[in-house]
Design brief:
The chain contains eleven helices and no strands. By secondary structure, the protein is mostly helical. It is globular, with a radius of gyration of 18 Å.
Length: 312
């Protein structure tokens, strides 16, 4: 599955699958931002994660059949970081933060992977990577700063930005923790298994029998929920892995388009107006991420390589 060292050119099938996956992930903040106005974050996440986990279960079976008991805690930690540590802060934060800003802040995920590697794993980075990290973080400051906040948003937008950044840090930890499991069990099986493990805590939030569950949703909200569970999380992961298999490591550059999709989606579907500060910050973030190189390019979904799947 790993074609990083072969120099294989991106083929059409891989390019198409990769573009669809990137569009699905880029539109996830837009759908979430819309849905949290009708459904509170915890019920939203409970429905989304359990539905996605049920669909992903067949892809988790190969890893579950041959799982080493010593790897079980790592799967659990990875699942909690990805499905709770990432998804919960993002969903709560999107109550108060525009989807366009959130999409740009989420583009910093590879930077946090780099920071975690430097701080906890003793990895080293050259001047170019450090400069790219600094530029990306400067972009974060511009996006999350007072000049980038919409009028009247107050401290809630700051809290929303902080939660989204916390989620990116958790996702960086998720990718680092799952990296060896992806190499051992395969990216699809490892991602699916961690997603199933991370969805289990949401079972505690399912109301007792006899209560109004699942909640009644409008047709548009129901479609958004299905999009997040089946489109972004399930189809996005499977399409991305297909893209990497058919397109090689060069496909990872498509991930730079994801924040662009988020901004355009927020403008088209939510009517958001993107300020000059947000655009300037977004340019800095993307430029900084590009400077850090493919070595930390975000692998949507778990290891820090292009052949990983991603539970969005």
């Amino acid at each position: 599955m790993d074609e990083r060292a072969t120099g294989t050119k991106v083929r059409t099938g891989g390019l198409g699958a990769g573009l669809i996956a990137v569009c699905l992930w880029g539109l996830a903040p837009v759908a979430t931002r819309s849905l949290v106005h009708e459904l509170a974050p915890l019920p939203l996440l409970t429905l989304r994660q359990l539905l996605a986990a049920g669909v992903l279960l067949p892809w988790a079976v190969p890893a579950l059949r041959r799982i080493d008991a010593r790897d079980l805690p790592r799967f659990i930690v990875a699942g909690l970081l990805g499905m709770v540590g990432y998804n919960l802060p993002v969903t709560v934060g999107l109550q108060w933060l525009p989807a366009s800003s959130a999409g740009l802040l989420l583009a910093t995920e590879p930077v946090w992977v780099l920071v975690i590697g430097l701080v906890f794993l003793g990895e080293r980075a050259g001047p170019r990577v450090l400069a790219g990290t600094g530029i990306a973080l400067a972009g974060v400051a511009v996006i999350a700063g007072p000049a980038a906040l919409s009028p009247g948003s107050g401290t809630r937008a700051v809290a929303g930005a902080a939660l989204v950044l916390l989620a990116t840090l958790a996702f960086g930890g998720y990718m680092v923790v799952l990296r060896p499991l992806s190499q051992k069990y395969g990216p699809v099986s490892a991602t699916a298994t961690s997603s199933v493990a991370g969805a289990l805590p949401y079972l505690a939030l399912v109301p007792l029998p006899g209560t109004a569950w699942p909640p009644r949703l409008s047709p548009s909200a129901g479609a958004e929920l299905l999009f997040l569970a089946l489109g972004s999380t399930v189809a996005g992961m499977l399409l991305w892995n297909l893209a990497v298999v058919r397109g090689g490591a060069g496909i990872s550059r498509l991930l730079y388009l994801e924040p662009v999709v988020s901004v355009l989606g927020a403008m088209v579907f939510l009517g958001e107006r993107v300020t000059a500060a947000v655009l300037a910050g977004g340019v800095l973030v993307i430029a900084g991420v590009v400077m850090t190189g493919d070595g930390v390019a975000r692998p949507r979904r778990p290891a820090v390589t292009a052949d990983a799947g991603l539970p969005r």
